[in-house]
């Protein structure tokens, strides 16, 4: 005779402690998942940022090359070369000094030279010696140069050689200015003679 089947069930009772432990396990699994997801996301962002920075640092600015110059137009002739204008500086004309042609002075051929006439050609010491010349005992010879005119007068008397004393030289000019001459003759006519000279001897009056 068959034995009747009995439904054997184990009546397991869950205690409050086991339920609490199960809840803790579930919560831990959830937290672990969240932490893992967060860590994976941050790491991915950091890696991507590092790659971007490296890309930015490595990339160089692109240098745009200038387009090549167009080829020369061989059909068009080059512009004509104009030479610079020739600058001519005009030099001033040389200043030429006028040529002065001097003719020698033609002295007339004298038939006779001037001859003293009238009072003697003598300068009296008593008349022409000054008091200072007498006191200083001035003596000497004055040579005069003058012109004897065609009328026989004395003009332009100058001292050709001094006696060494101005008072005596001036007295000689004053004395000779009153002399008279017979004029020189050339070709039968009276003519003037320049640079005629005469000596006047000065001696202290006694």
Overall average pLDDT: 77
Fraction of helical residues: 25-40%
What ranges have pLDDT less than 50 throughout 5 or more consecutive residues?
1-12
Number of helices: 4
CATH superfamily of the domain at 115-202: TonB
Radius of gyration: 75 Å
Level-1 CATH class name of the domain at 115-202: Alpha Beta
Span of the ends, CA to CA: 228 Å
Portion in strands? 15-25%
Enter the CATH topology name of the domain at 115-202.
TolA/TonB C-terminal domain
Strand order of the largest sheet: 3-2-7
**What's the CATH architecture of the domain at 115-202?**
2-Layer Sandwich
Output the structural class.
alpha+beta
Overall strand count: 7
Largest sheet: 3 strands, antiparallel
Order of helices and strands: HEHHEEHEEEE
Topology summary:
Elements: H1 16-58, E1 115-117, H2 125-128, H3 131-135, E2 140-148, E3 154-161, H4 166-176, E4 180-182, E5 184-186, E6 189-191, E7 193-202
Antiparallel strand pairs: 1-4, 2-3, 2-7, 5-6
Give the gist of this structure.
The protein is α+β, with helices and mostly antiparallel strands and 206 residues long. The chain has 4 helices and 7 strands, in the order H-E-H-H-E-E-H-E-E-E-E.
Structure explained in plain terms:
The protein has 206 residues and is α+β, with helices and mostly antiparallel strands. Among the domains are: 16-60; 115-202, TonB (TolA/TonB C-terminal domain, 2-Layer Sandwich). 31% of the residues lie in helices and 19% in strands. It has helices at 16-58, 125-128, 131-135, 166-176; strands at 115-117, 140-148, 154-161, 180-182, 184-186, 189-191, 193-202. The strands form three sheets. The chain has a three-stranded antiparallel sheet with strand order 3-2-7, covered by helices on one side. Strands 1-4 form a two-stranded antiparallel sheet. A two-stranded antiparallel ribbon has the order 5-6. Strand 5 (184-186) and strand 6 (189-191) form a beta hairpin. The longest helix is centred in the first third of the chain and has 43 residues, at 16-58. The protein is elongated, with a radius of gyration of 75 Å. Residues 1-12 have low confidence and may be disordered.
């Amino acid at each position: 005779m068959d034995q009747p089947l009995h439904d054997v069930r184990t009546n397991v009772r869950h205690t409050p402690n086991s339920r609490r432990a199960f809840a803790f396990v579930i919560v831990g699994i959830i937290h672990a998942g969240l932490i893992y997801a967060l860590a994976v996301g941050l790491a991915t962002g950091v890696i991507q940022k590092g790659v971007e920075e490296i890309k930015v640092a490595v990339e160089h600015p692109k240098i745009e090359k200038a387009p090549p110059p167009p080829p020369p137009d061989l059909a068009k002739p080059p512009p004509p070369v104009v030479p610079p204008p020739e600058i001519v500086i005009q030099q001033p004309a040389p200043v030429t000094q006028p040529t002065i042609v001097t003719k020698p002075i033609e002295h007339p051929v004298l038939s006779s030279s001037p001859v003293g006439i009238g009072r003697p050609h003598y300068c009296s010491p008593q008349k022409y010696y000054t008091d200072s010349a007498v006191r200083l005992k001035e003596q000497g010879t004055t040579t005069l140069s003058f012109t004897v005119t065609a009328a026989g007068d004395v003009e332009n008397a100058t001292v050709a050689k001094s006696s060494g004393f101005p008072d005596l030289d001036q007295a000689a000019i004053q004395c000779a200015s009153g002399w008279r001459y017979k004029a020189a003759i050339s070709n039968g006519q009276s003519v003037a003679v320049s640079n005629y000279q005469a000596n006047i001897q000065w001696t202290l009056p006694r």
